[in-house]
Amino acid sequence: MPKARIKQKKSRLDWYLSRIRTMSPPEIVYRVRTALKKKWDQRSKMSHLPKGSIDRLPGTLFFLPKTEREITLRDYSIFGHGLNYRKSIDWHRDLTTRKEFPRKFSFDIDTRSGKNGNVKVVWEVNRLQYLLHICLKYQQSKEKKYLDLFVRHIEEWKEANPYLNGVNWYSNIEVNIRIINWVFCWEMIEANELMASDSEFKKFVETTWLPLIELHARHAYRYESKYSSSNNHLIAEASGLFIAGCYWSFKDSDRHIKKGQAILEEEIVKQHSANGINKEEASEYIQFITDFFLIAFLIGERSGHGFSEAYRQTLQSIFDYIYHLMDMGGNVPYYGDDDDGKVISLPTDETHFNNFRSLLTSAAIVFNDPKFKAKGRVFDLKNQVLFGEEGQGVFDSLALPEKTEPETRLYKNEGHFLIKKGGDAREVYLHVDIAPLGYLSIAAHGHADALSFFLNIDGKPYIVDPGTYTYHSFPEWRAYFKGTLAHNTIRVDGLDQSVNGGPCLWLNHYQAEVLEIKDSPEEIVLKGSHNGYDQQGVKHTRTYIFDKKNDSITIIDDLKVANDETHVYEYPLHLHPDVTVQQEAPDRFTIAHPGERTVSILLDERLKTEVLRGSESPLLGWFSPSFLQKQPTSVIYSKIELTGNLQLTTKIKVSHEK
């Protein structure tokens, strides 16, 4: 057997062993039962297709947008690679590597090693979110060729993806994203009216589309995520199941509604703190899961299946956290994973649609709160579809506050500290992370970033979290981007703060502790520690002092060492790619965006410091603006080897003038 194949099999075995370590005994029993269920389904359900009978046509729950801008069908971006959906699509092929996933029993397919390609790319295509672009183009033009294009894609997808054949039935979250997008497609092409006027389309709906939708709903019901996997996946699954039940009157819709709604009611509280902070510790995922909760909420209210007051209040708290997390420029800085996930995708001229802003516009309407409008700003195409003219009337009627001052929020229980100062189009924004690693026993989307920080000035990122880049492909890059060295904190002896058990798996989770919070008129003091290096005999404690008058930040790192041993400490400061850096002295640097305010950084003179950019040995100086995309950026990288205790002081000063 070739060495590469042996290494691949060993890697897969190591992952399974690590994964089992994160499971409780009840979860192991559940996993065994699920494996048996899958084998039963392999024998009895492959290629099954239900009749798709409904008792009545769906009621209209959303709105046709009234946009004067002509919708142009362009290639759909799949992580920066264009998908030409005017042509037929190979539903099993990774368009970035040209590798292809086998057409066999879904749960037997290797989705992790990369030998078949990057499964995220294939799944992104098969979310079928581009269909909504086609539907909106048809709605705007009424040209039958666009309706025919939509029908052809559904028919070809059905033929190429018989039930439980191929990789597109492997992940339940993908199944449910398709369900939700089909609801919007149904509304945008006005399928009810088309069925009454077009016999050919009616036949397509009754023999192809509705049976496929019912099949998806049944799968969503049968394969929910549980135990250590019940994170954003469970939210997506419950949302899709609930929405399908509310919208289409299949024979099992009532129990789909009941199960989906019960899970959503439980998980919106369970997966968020009292302040609305999501426990997965991945900021970009917040917009993703909030759309699941929001769309389910709107459909529930409009179909007679409303949610509890606790659900509504938690949803409002989530929006409140988004509002405070966002800087004055509309940026929500990275922490944790980001894979560009969206629930629905609408045609826009923006290169990167700011769904956080869009969500705040939605929040302004749902909660009739002008605060959210101040950062949402625009009643965009997505909100036209969700709320229609009545919603726009509510949005337009909200009076903006005359002046909005940046607000500091110190979330002690969650370990997120949003320190802001400014006014008159100026803002210093320091985010300090003394938060847990992630959610549940695998902490799938957390990064090893305890005691890290980022710094935005006047709505522009200066010192940043470099992002995510990849999950299962390029394992060395995955390990780097989620590891401690890719964050603005201290790494000890070349080790992460927790043990990397796989692409979306952490072992031996560190515990972060908030030791001190002081907020006075003169300064804010934060002090925290973590136990990630206890096995190395090192205790890392970091203190942040924010001087409100002088816009300066002092960072004091205390590294207490057991037994007077020698250790190697690495300390990176990752800069945004647009930031320039000047080294004024061995320990002094000046950074700035072109034409913007400068920031001076003074490091401990004992450190050996250099500026690296786009280094591959070691991996350092990279930024991922989007999933599967990376670019070189500058990192101020410091290193020291020392015996005994170490204290380092860093001084950061934001200039008052450009």
Defining traits:
658 residues; alpha+beta; Glycosyltransferase; Beta-galactosidase, Chain A, domain 5; 3 domains; 16 helices; signal
What does this structure look like?
- The chain folds into three domains: 1-45; 63-397, Chondroitin AC/alginate lyase (Glycosyltransferase, Alpha/alpha barrel); 409-654, Beta-galactosidase, Chain A, domain 5, CATH 2.70.98.70.
- Helices cover 36% and strands 21% of the residues.
- It contains 16 helices and 25 strands.
- The strands form seven sheets. Strands 11-12-13-14-25-18-17-16 form an eight-stranded antiparallel β-sheet, with no helix packed on it. A five-stranded antiparallel β-sheet has the order 3-4-5-6-7, with no helix packed on it.
- Helix 6 (172-188) packs antiparallel against helix 8 (199-222) and helix 9 (232-247) runs parallel beside helix 11.
- The longest helix has 24 residues, at 199-222.
- The chain is globular and about 80 Å long.
Offer a quick outline of the entry:
The chain has 658 residues and is α+β, with helices and mostly antiparallel strands. Helices cover 36% and strands 21% of the residues.
